[in-house]
Design goal:
InterPro entries: Class_I_gatase-like, PdxT/SNO, PdxT/SNO_CS
Structural class: alpha/beta
Strand order of the largest sheet: 2-1-3-4-12-11-10
GO cellular component, one term: glutaminase complex
GO molecular function: glutaminase activity; pyridoxal 5'-phosphate synthase (glutamine hydrolysing) activity
Catalytic activity: L-glutamine + H2O = L-glutamate + NH4(+); aldehydo-D-ribose 5-phosphate + D-glyceraldehyde 3-phosphate + L-glutamine = pyridoxal 5'-phosphate + L-glutamate + phosphate + 3 H2O + H(+)
Bound molecules: glutamine
Strand content: 35-45%
CATH architecture: 3-Layer(aba) Sandwich
Oligomer: single chain
CATH superfamily: Class I glutamine amidotransferase (GATase) domain
CATH class: Alpha Beta
Number of strands: 12
Keywords: Glutamine amidotransferase, Hydrolase, Lyase, Pyridoxal phosphate
Order of helices and strands: EHEHEHHEHEEEEEEEEH
Length: 193
Amino acid sequence: MKIGILALQGAFEEHAKVLDKLGVSSIQIRNLDDYQQHQSDLVGLILPGGESTTMGKLLRDQNMLLPIREAILSGLPVFGTCAGLILLAKEIASQEESHLGIMDIVVERNAYGRQLGSFYTEAECKGVGKIPMTFIRGPIISSVGEGVEILATVDEQIVAAQEQNMLVTSFHPELTDDARLHQYFINMCKEKS
Ligand code: GLN
């Protein structure tokens, strides 16, 4: 069982370490060749935090946007954290273009503002329990479509959600010692494969 981690930019190494700790192999996907070579082995894909505009541009420049989009639409489980969440959103507030544009959510980038952009808290996450949450200039999900389940909120803002094979958080679970959310994702991958 192998999970791909998009490794164009951002916090991909940290996700690899968590998967390793949980005994799951990962493949870092840096370009279209990497993706095509491992595509048939992958049971899931992680889109890490970082800078969504840069990642979106690199995905387009390397002709990876459409193949990844199609794989997710065909059911490949995907876990988007922070910028990865923004990549998946159908709509990005005050931006004309989305990136993968497949999850039925509207997101606001840098929504916690400059002062409160980075902070730590703990909150209940449905199906997982009370977990630590590290926010780094994270987005908030300002609205969700009918098929989207809200998994966690902080200060009444949605910070984790799931729509079928797509799991997203506006915080960074890979930056804490708590691996339960990754385990939750691994379980989604096992169910699908
Ligand atoms: N602010 C970043 C963006 O808009 C996301 C921050 C993160 O991934 N930690 O892409």
